[in-house]
UniProtKB/TrEMBL annotation:
Organism: Paraburkholderia agricolaris
PANTHER family the UniProt entry points to: OXIDOREDUCTASE, SHORT-CHAIN DEHYDROGENASE/REDUCTASE FAMILY (AFU_ORTHOLOGUE AFUA_5G02870) (PTHR43639), SHORT-CHAIN DEHYDROGENASE_REDUCTASE FAMILY PROTEIN (PTHR43639:SF1)
Pfam families: adh_short_C2
Family statement: Belongs to the short-chain dehydrogenases/reductases (SDR) family.
NCBIfam families: PRK06947.1 (NF005400), PRK07231.1 (NF005559)
Keywords: Oxidoreductase
Protein name: SDR family oxidoreductase
InterPro entries given in the database record: NAD(P)-bd_dom_sf (IPR036291), Sc_DH/Rdtase_CS (IPR020904), SDR_fam (IPR002347)
Amino acid sequence: MTKAVLITGGSRGIGRATARLLGAQGWSVGVNYAQNLAAARETVADVERAGGQALAIAGDVASETDVIAMFDALEQKFGRLDALVNNAGIVAPSSQLADMELARLKRMFDVNVLGAYLCAREAARRMSTARGGAGGVIVNISSAAARLGSPNEYIDYAGSKGAVDTLTIGLAKELGPQGVRVNAVRPGLIDTDIHASGGKPERAAQLGATTPLGRPGSANEVAESIVWLLSDAASYVTGALLDVTGGR
Ligand code: NAP
């Protein structure tokens, strides 16, 4: 039977690249997006062309109502849930903490932390063998920022990703006995739209050149690691934080 995965923030960037690779492996993919229906539709078409099935699912991960509805929509369409790629995330313009407004801080933690926790909670409720589920896999998308701290750029974002790492460590221990593996991927400087949304479209190219591998990474290179963690090839891997950073 075809496996089904929900990818939050599946419409663009790392989420879209992951959807494409999973489509090529025959997965059914729930492509969550916040605003960009056109991009979500493109991802759905890519998955279908690659050989999988897909469904665009609107929803803000920071909204509990939306998150529950997203998982319900996926299960209604595909009849099962085998995996979550907890990927939706935001940055904000570079700033020192002293200059950050409360609204920015709240939104950062609402989307990147509360959103990740709510999505992981829903996946746990539905996949845990202790709750009637069939087991599964969660891959949380953190960031190298969690260990770098991102001074003068966005220490709010870095802290939100620190929380994602800690979620991964704790939840892997909770859910290991319940048939669910939980890991995190920590990308470095990856060539996606996220840098433009933080006001620096050239950031990945410029800083990527300073990494040991001398270039930014591609969304596809991150997606490959996510797909591996989702697969049975990673059957003994849980609670791991996998850096995909070109050595940064
Ligand atoms: P991206 O290209 O900016 O895409 C962001 C995706 O998240 C889009 O699909 C967007 O949907 C969705 N999204 C944003 N806010 C959302 C919300 N509140 N609810 C649901 N979906 C939401 O980002 P990316 O670079 O692929 O980043 C993906 C993940 O990797 C993020 O967690 C990010 O922090 C992490 N990461 C990225 C890098 C990097 O260098 N790119 C490095 C380290 C970590 P719409 O299309 O509807 O806007």
